Recover the amino acids of this structure.
C-alpha cells in the first residue's frame, strides 16, 4: 500500500469519526428534551384518565433513559409504558414492565422518587385485582403504602393500607380485614383526616351488620357517621353512590327490633341513579323485615325481587370476569412485536459488526504510522536523557552549596528571633488583659439592653392589646356571648377578622398559612383569643360542642403542635401577646 493511499485513508477515517462525535454531541440535548416531552405528554394523559393508545414513542423513551437516564427517569419511563400496555388491554405486558420499573429504582439514593415507585405498586395492585391475583395484590398494596410514607404522602399511604382490608374481605378473611381497617381508621383520625375515617367506617359497618354480637359497635359507627359526615346535603340526604349507609342504619334498628325505623331506612337506600349493587342489600333487608312480621304477600314479593337482583349481580360479575380473563391473554400483538424487534436487533448487530471491522482496519493503519513516528521520538529522547543527566549533576552540586549558605543565615536569624519573642509575649499578655476587661463590659451591657428590650416589648404589647379589646366589634361580641339565643352574622365575623389582622397581623398570617385550618376553625380561634368559653362559642356560631372542641384542637395542633384544646388560649396569649380584658 502506497504512502499516499495510507494518508488518504487515515484522513477519511478522522473526518468520519469527527462527524459522528459532532452529531452525537449536538443531538444529545435535543434528544433528551424530546424524550422528556414524550414522558410529560403520557403523564398528562394518564393523570386525566385519557387512554394511551400507542406504545411506540414510550418504548423509544424507555430505551433512551435505560442508557442515558437517572434511576428516577428510568422508573418513570417504565411506569408510563406499563400504563400504555394497561390501556391497550395487555395486562401481562403491563405487569412485566412495571416489575422492570421496580428494579430500576435506587431506594438507597437520597433523591429517590418514592412517589413514582409507590404509583408503580398501585398500578400493579389494581391490575392484579383485575386478574383475581389477590395475594399479589395484597403485597403490592403493602409496598405502595410503605413508599407513600417514605414520599411523605400520609393520606395515600393510609389509603393503600385500607385497600389491604378489601383484599382480605375478598379472601373471606374477615378478622384480618377488621384489624387492618381499624388501624387505618385510627391513622386517618390521628393525622386529621376525619372524613376519610368516616368513609372507611362503612366497610366496618359491613363487617358488623350480620353479627348480632357487634351490634353496639355498629350503632356507634352509624351514629358517628350520621352526625359528622359532610356528604349529607341540606335535607340530610346522601348522594346516590353513598346511600348504602341507610342499609346499615336499618340493620342497627332491626337488631333492636325497631322494625318500622328499619323498614324506613331500608327503603331510603333506593334513589335515582343508585349503583346496581345497592338493590341487593335493600331487598335483603326488606325481606328480613316482612319475614319477622309474618306478612306472606310481602315476603313473596321481596323474596322474588331479592333473588332476581342477586342472580343478575352474579351474571354481571361472571361477564366482567370473563372479559378480564380474555383480555389478559391477548398475546398476539405482543408476539408479533417481539418477532419484529428481534429482526431489527439482528440487522443492527450486522451493521455494528461491519462498522467494527472497518474501524479496526483504519485503526491498525493509524497505529502503524504512529509507531514509526514514536520510534524516531524515542531516539531523540535518549540523547536528551544523557544531556539532562549531566545537567542534573551540576544542579545538585549547586543546590548543596545553596543549602549550606541557607543554614548559616537561619542560625543568625534564630538568635535575633529569641530576643524578639520576649517582647511579643509581653504584648500578647497585655492584649489578653485588655480584651477580657472589654468582654466583661460587653456582657454587662448586653444583658441590660436585652432587659430593656423585653420591658419595651411588654409596654408595646399593652398598647396594642388594650385598644383592640375596647373595639366596638369586640365589645359587641362579648355582649352577644351573654345571650344564648344570639348568633354572630357573617359581617360580624369579617369585621372581627379585619380587626385582628390590623392589631395582630402575625396571627392572621399563621392562620392563613396553615392548610389544615378551615374558615370555621379560624372563626373558632378568633373567638378563643377573646377568652370566650367553649359554650359561648357554640351559641355564637350555632355549631355543636364536639365541633368546637375538634376545631380548637385542630388550631392548637397546626399552630403549636399540641393535640389538645385546653392550652389553645394560653398558647395564643403567649405567642401573640394577647392580654385579657
Amino acid at each position: 500500500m502506497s504512502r499516499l493511499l495510507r494518508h488518504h485513508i487515515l484522513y477519511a477515517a478522522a473526518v468520519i469519526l469527527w462527524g459522528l462525535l459532532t452529531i452525537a454531541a449536538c443531538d444529545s440535548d435535543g434528544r433528551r428534551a424530546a424524550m422528556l416531552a414524550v414522558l410529560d405528554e403520557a403523564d398528562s394523559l394518564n393523570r386525566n384518565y385519557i387512554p394511551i393508545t400507542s406504545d411506540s414513542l414510550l418504548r423509544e423513551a424507555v430505551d433512551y433513559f435505560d442508557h442515558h437516564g437517572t434511576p428516577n427517569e428510568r422508573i418513570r419511563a417504565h411506569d408510563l409504558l406499563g400504563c400504555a400496555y394497561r390501556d391497550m388491554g395487555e395486562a401481562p405486558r403491563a405487569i412485566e414492565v412495571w416489575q422492570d420499573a421496580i428494579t430500576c429504582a435506587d431506594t438507597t439514593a437520597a433523591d429517590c422518587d418514592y412517589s413514582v415507585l409507590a404509583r408503580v405498586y398501585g398500578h400493579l395492585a389494581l391490575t392484579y385485582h383485575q386478574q383475581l391475583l389477590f395475594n399479589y395484590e395484597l403485597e403490592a398494596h403493602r409496598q405502595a403504602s410503605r413508599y407513600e410514607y417514605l414520599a411523605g404522602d400520609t393520606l395515600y399511604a393510609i389509603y393503600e393500607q385500607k385497600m389491604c382490608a378489601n383484599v382480605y374481605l375478598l379472601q373471606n378473611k374477615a378478622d384480618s380485614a377488621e384489624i387492618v381497617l381499624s388501624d387505618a381508621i385510627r391513622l386517618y383520625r390521628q393525622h386529621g383526616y376525619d372524613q376519610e375515617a368516616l368513609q372507611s367506617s362503612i366497610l366496618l359497618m359491613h363487617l358488623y351488620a350480620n353479627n348480632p354480637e357487634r351490634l353496639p359497635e355498629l350503632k356507634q359507627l352509624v351514629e358517628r357517621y350520621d352526625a359528622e359526615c359532610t356528604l349529607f346535603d341540606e335535607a340530610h340526604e346522601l348522594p346516590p353512590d353513598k346511600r348504602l349507609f341507610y342499609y346499615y342504619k336499618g340493620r342497627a334498628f332491626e337488631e333492636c327490633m325497631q322494625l318500622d325505623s328499619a323498614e324506613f331506612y331500608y327503603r331510603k337506600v333506593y334513589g335515582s341513579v343508585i349503583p346496581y349493587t345497592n338493590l341487593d342489600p335493600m331487598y335483603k333487608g326488606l325481606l328480613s323485615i316482612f319475614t319477622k312480621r309474618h306478612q306472606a304477600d310481602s315476603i313473596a314479593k321481596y323474596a322474588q325481587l331479592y333473588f332476581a337482583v342477586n342472580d343478575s349481580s352474579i351474571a354481571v360479575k361472571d361477564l366482567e370476569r370473563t372479559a378480564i380473563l380474555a383480555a389478559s391473554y391477548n398475546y398476539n400483538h405482543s408476539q408479533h412485536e417481539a418477532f419484529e424487534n428481534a429482526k431489527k436487533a439482528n440487522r443492527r448487530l450486522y451493521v455494528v459488526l461491519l462498522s467494527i471491522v472497518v474501524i479496526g482496519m483504519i485503526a491498525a493503519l493509524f497505529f502503524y504510522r504512529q509507531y514509526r513516528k514514536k520510534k524516531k521520538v524515542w531516539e531523540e529522547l535518549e540523547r536528551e536523557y544523557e544531556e539532562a543527566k549531566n545537567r542534573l549533576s551540576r544542579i545538585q552540586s549547586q543546590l548543596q552549596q545553596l543549602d549550606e549558605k541557607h543554614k548559616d543565615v537561619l542560625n543568625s536569624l534564630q538568635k535575633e528571633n529569641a530576643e524578639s519573642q520576649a517582647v511579643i509575649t509581653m504584648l500578647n499578655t497585655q492584649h489578653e488583659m485588655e480584651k477580657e476587661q472589654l468582654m466583661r463590659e460587653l456582657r454587662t451591657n448586653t444583658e441590660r439592653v436585652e432587659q430593656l428590650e423585653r420591658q419595651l416589648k411588654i409596654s408595646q404589647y399593652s398598647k396594642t392589646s388594650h385598644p383592640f379589646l375596647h373595639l366596638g366589634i369586640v365589645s359587641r361580641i362579648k355582649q352577644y356571648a351573654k345571650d344564648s339565643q344570639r348568633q354572630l352574622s357573617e359581617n360580624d365575623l369579617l369585621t372581627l377578622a379585619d380587626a385582628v389582622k390590623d392589631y395582630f397581623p402575625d396571627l392572621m398570617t399563621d392562620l392563613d398559612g396553615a392548610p389544615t385550618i378551615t374558615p370555621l376553625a379560624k372563626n373558632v380561634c378568633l373567638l378563643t383569643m377573646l377568652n370566650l368559653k367553649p359554650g359561648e362559642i357554640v351559641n355564637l356560631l350555632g355549631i355543636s360542642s364536639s365541633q368546637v372542641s375538634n376545631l380548637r384542637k385542630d388550631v392548637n395542633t397546626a399552630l403549636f403542635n399540641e393535640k389538645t384544646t385546653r392550652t389553645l388560649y394560653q398558647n395564643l396569649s403567649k405567642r401573640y401577646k394577647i392580654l385579657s380584658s
